[in-house]
Q: What sequence folds into this?
């Protein structure tokens, strides 16, 4: 079954704009730096680099050193000098379908400039951190690009996170400014973003100002001197002049994005202007073959790396037209997305397996009501896609005409790492092979390559321009987490297999990261939310297989004396996690337990809990205490 190839049709190949796939792959194999220099030359630099790659201080790789650049200039300003000036950059539709907004590159420049002037007027300058916490509205794009334009470092926090997550991220980044909205809409329900900001800021002394975009138009408290309505600021003279673009070093920080790891607090993954720009530009161009005729829709939220790289930066670097939808896949009806593809003539559609599985359940009649003939390419990201969902996506949505780009990558890699291109034969469930210039390997515990078809740890061998530049404020943790175990190789944290055709099959995380509906969460975050409840003595969170969400969260809870294991308490604890960490982290099940299995050194044995929960053998118990 795994041997089954899906060959792209002659039509699909004829439709691609890029022609020289083989030559590109070949040139990257032969001359990695030359390949990337050529890609970089397609973008605008205030000053070109002295060196393409500086690997003199591994694993602290640097790219395009000595160059002067600004990613926002390449996303906006460069297009104003071409026919793209009046081309649509961004089209947006509200969840309720009652409003639609569209911005040409010319209009985008106006919006970004105005936002940049306003951010500057709040005393923010190059290198300062700005936290952005909003729903999927055009202003989140303006805010990100505006920060980049003036050299401020943005830290976008997903609007589905709540107080604990937001507060921790604002505090860790020592942000000076927060940009938010009064609220956001989620399946017809109001999410009180500004109130969550208010609560978070009680313990974040570095924040001086809060800019509030009006979206839901309900009453919210505004703190005098600190909180400002965005529309009021827009009316000030200071907002409406020109704004100089900050000339940045290629290696200057662009953004930090918090992501969950094995233990402890989420890590602030750091990306920079130069390399990240070249990486996202190139991968979108070659993997999704993006062109001026396309309408590109990436359903991800800007709060995750997919939204950063392929909703905002990648499309705009390519001068593409990108579509952004405020809502989710099935509200008010399961044809919402299909309706949007038809209405806006979407040609490239990039989404996540969890959404495909959920929509597949509603049956073929919903998509079949719509004309989906504008589509030419599909994409999947975030977790392994099961062949059944892949085939449904291919047949019912793509009408067997549209190749599916199953892109494997991470917050840390910034860009696609293992991915097909539109002309390679596909296998449902495999991301095929590494992108141009990359080599992957499957290794055992000691770092020795394992034979084909055997499961092992996935590592990457070559540096790439969009690789993270570290963990903000914690260089030692960067080395320890990613580079210590297999010296010279990047440890991905995933297990995988390579088949006899050289195709890679991702199996899943080998650490304590849970993937719930493609969202990356750490067991530690869920546990620290639980521990703030007065009844909880100790807890352990694990991920269990789930038909639609990929993984579901199960929590084992040891109660404090005086509390009984009741149904009400279980429900209360689930709600507690949702309120504190975010609705996406709400545990599916709470199991009360007298004593958590631990090693003699006191570490919780999640592996044992996981096996027990699934009725599987518990494995080696020799380290279990008593
Ligand atoms: C982890 C990274 C970067 C995209 C969004 C997720 C899993 C991601 C795939 C895929 C199988 C995938 C891996 C990876 N993953 N894409 N196409 N097939 N697994 O970024 O939140 O940093 O998560 O997502 O386990 O390590 P992220």
A:
């Amino acid at each position: 079954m795994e041997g089954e190839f899906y060959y792209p049709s002659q039509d699909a190949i004829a439709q691609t704009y890029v022609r020289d796939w083989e030559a590109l792959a070949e040139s990257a194999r032969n001359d990695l730096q030359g390949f990337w220099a050529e890609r970089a030359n397609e973008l605008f630099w205030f000053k070109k680099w002295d060196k393409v790659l500086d690997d003199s201080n591994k694993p602290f790789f640097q790219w395009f050193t000595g160059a002067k650049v600004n990613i926002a200039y390449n996303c906006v300003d460069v297009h104003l000098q071409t026919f793209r000036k009046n081309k649509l950059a961004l089209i947006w539709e509200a969840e309720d379908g009652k409003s639609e907004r569209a911005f040409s590159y010319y209009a985008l420049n106006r919006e970004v400039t105005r936002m940049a002037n306003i951010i500057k007027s709040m005393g923010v300058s190059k290198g300062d951190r700005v936290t952005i916490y909003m729903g999927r509205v055009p202003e989140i794009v303006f805010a990100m690009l505006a920060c980049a334009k003036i050299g401020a470092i943005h830290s976008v926090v997903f609007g589905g996170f709540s107080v604990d997550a937001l507060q921790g991220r604002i505090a860790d980044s020592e942000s000076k400014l927060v940009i938010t909205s009064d609220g956001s809409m989620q399946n017809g329900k109001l999410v009180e973003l500004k109130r969550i900001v208010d609560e978070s800021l009680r313990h974040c002394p570095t924040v001086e100002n809060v800019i509030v975009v009006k979206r839901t138009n309900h009453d919210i408290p505004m703190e005098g001197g600190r909180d400002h309505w965005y529309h009021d600021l827009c009316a000030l003279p200071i907002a409406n002049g020109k704004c100089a673009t900050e000339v940045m070093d290629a290696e200057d920080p662009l953004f930090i994005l918090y992501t969950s790891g094995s233990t402890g607090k989420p890590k602030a993954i750091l990306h920079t202007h130069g390399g990240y720009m070249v990486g996202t530009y190139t991968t979108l161009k070659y993997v999704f073959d993006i062109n001026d005729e396309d309408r590109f829709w990436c359903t991800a939220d800007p709060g995750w790396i997919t939204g950063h790289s392929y909703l905002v930066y990648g499309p705009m670097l390519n001068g593409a037209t990108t579509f952004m939808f405020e809502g989710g896949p099935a509200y008010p009806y399961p044809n919402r997305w299909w309706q949007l593809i038809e209405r806006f003539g979407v040609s490239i559609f990039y989404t996540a397996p969890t959404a495909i599985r959920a929509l597949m359940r509603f049956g073929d009649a919903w998509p079949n009501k719509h004309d989906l003939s504008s589509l030419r390419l599909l994409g999947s990201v975030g977790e392994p896609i099961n062949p059944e969902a892949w085939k449904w996506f291919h047949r019912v949505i793509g009408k067997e005409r549209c190749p599916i780009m199953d892109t494997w990558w991470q917050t840390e890699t910034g860009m696609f790492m293992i991915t097909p291109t539109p002309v390679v034969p596909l296998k449902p469930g495999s991301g095929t092979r590494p992108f141009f210039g990359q080599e992957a390997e499957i290794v055992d515990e000691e770092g020795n390559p394992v034979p084909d078809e055997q499961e092992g740890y996935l590592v990457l061998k070559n540096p790439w321009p969009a690789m993270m530049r570290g963990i903000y404020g914690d260089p030692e943790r960067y080395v320890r987490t990613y580079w210590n175990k297999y010296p010279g190789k990047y440890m991905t944290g995933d297990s995988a297999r390579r088949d006899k055709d050289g195709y890679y099959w991702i199996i899943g995380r080998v650490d304590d990261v849970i993937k719930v509906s493609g969202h990356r969460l750490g067991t530690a975050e869920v546990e620290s939310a639980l521990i703030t409840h007065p009844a909880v003595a100790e807890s352990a969170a694990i991920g269990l297989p789930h038909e639609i969400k990929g993984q579901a969260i199960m929590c084992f809870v040891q109660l404090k004396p005086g509390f009984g294991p009741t149904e009400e308490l279980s429900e209360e604890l689930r709600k507690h996690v949702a309120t504190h960490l975010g609705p996406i982290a709400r545990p599916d099940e709470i199991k009360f337990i007298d004593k958590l299995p631990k090693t003699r050194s006191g570490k919780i044995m999640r592996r044992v809990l996981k096996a027990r929960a699934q009725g599987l053998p518990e494995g080696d118990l020799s380290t279990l205490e008593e």
Remarks:
- The mean pLDDT is 96.
- The longest strand covers residues 536-546.
- The two ends are 46 Å apart (CA to CA).
- The longest helix spans residues 105-121.
